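Whether sequence alone determines local backbone shape is best considered at the level of individual chains. In the encoding step, the backbone of a single protein was reduced to a row of integers, each denoting a local shape. For completeness, the protein is quoted in full, as a sequence line and a line of structure tokens.
***
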Amino acid sequence: MASPEDSPPSNTAYDPQKDGAKMRFDDAMSYGDYLQVETLLDIQTCHSPAHDEMLFIIQHQTSELWMKLILHELAETRLAFQQGNMPVVFKMLSRISRIFEQLNNQWDVLRTMAPADYTSFRIHWGFHRASSRFIPHDRVYLGQSQPKHAETARTRAPFPQPAGTRT
């Protein structure tokens, strides 16, 4: 049997396309389009001339995205738990734990803002924040039936919002 060193040199270059690799992406969606980067970057709207308002907005928008992911992961965790698929449950709970670490750690950046910096743009909002968002208990419970407090939490009236505000 001949070894590669014994083979005569080939004049043809390796063609990854012959192995199934896609080589042309002219007709494909770009990575930025897939992630909707332009839309994402267009939604940070400052309402004051204060420099730190952008930090505040991005901090809170990314927190909302992480919380959305937590709810997404909890739904899959619940399903896996109900199916008895414990390896997936542990994997998802580990991921959720890391997301909470990320949420906690990102507040270090916001802590660089002094209270006076916050006040410099807060006065431009024209509304008062009535309550923070939260993850409802009934979305966290993994078992077949929900505990009594979960039903109460789900049917309870939402926090009152001041007139003219969105939740």
Summary: Helices lie at 31-35, 37-42, 53-82, 86-110, 115-122, 137-140, 148-155.
